[in-house]
Write a structure and sequence with these properties.
Strand content: 5-15%
Structural class: mainly alpha
Number of strands: 2
Length: about 170
């Protein structure tokens, strides 16, 4: 939810474009503890991206595990490493997943990353098609409706809360 802001991800409203952000700027810039309400885009945070044309974007129901919990796994027998299921937390979580897999692959025995609940975790398999398709589309519709309800009422969605409760979150 982006409450109290109107809209959701990929909309033109504030809830789709404004995010709380922490920026580490070791050589100057804003003083520590500064609150800034100005707009900031990707090029403000990553100026080296200037002039690069992006042709694709990540979005939609991609790589969502059955229980919506991320995992990072390394099978020493096959040499196959997998990580995924970040469900909206992609950039930060993929960084930690990469470091978790690095330690698993290198066999770092005292790595605190390998103690994280997602290390070596597997989720239950999805139901077969077309049941999976129907479920994914139903959940997408549920959250679109939840976003509309939250915008209209200014309160958290009861339907979304019940969905997370069913999943055990």
């Amino acid at each position: 939810s982006s409450l109290p802001l109107r809209g959701a991800k990929h909309t033109i409203y504030e809830g789709g474009v404004r995010l709380p952000t922490v920026i580490h700027w070791p050589k100057g810039g804003l003083a520590g503890g500064t609150k800034w309400d100005g707009l900031c885009g990707s090029l403000d945070m990553f100026p080296t991206l200037s002039g690069i044309n992006f042709t694709h974007e990540w979005g939609g129901n991609l790589g969502i595990p059955r229980d919506w919990v991320p995992s990072a796994n390394f099978d020493r027998k096959t040499g196959i490493a997998t990580a995924g299921g970040y469900v909206g937390d992609g950039v930060a979580t993929s960084n930690i997943a990469g470091r978790t897999l690095r330690d698993a692959i290198l066999g770092v025995e005292d790595s605190p990353l390998l103690e994280l609940p997602w290390a070596g975790r597997t989720s239950r398999r999805w139901e077969p098609e077309p049941i999976r398709w129907a479920g994914v589309n139903a959940v997408t519709a549920l959250f679109a409706n939840a976003d509309r309800t939250e915008v209209e009422s200014g309160k958290p969605s009861i339907a979304a809360r019940q969905f997370w409760r069913v999943l055990g979150h």
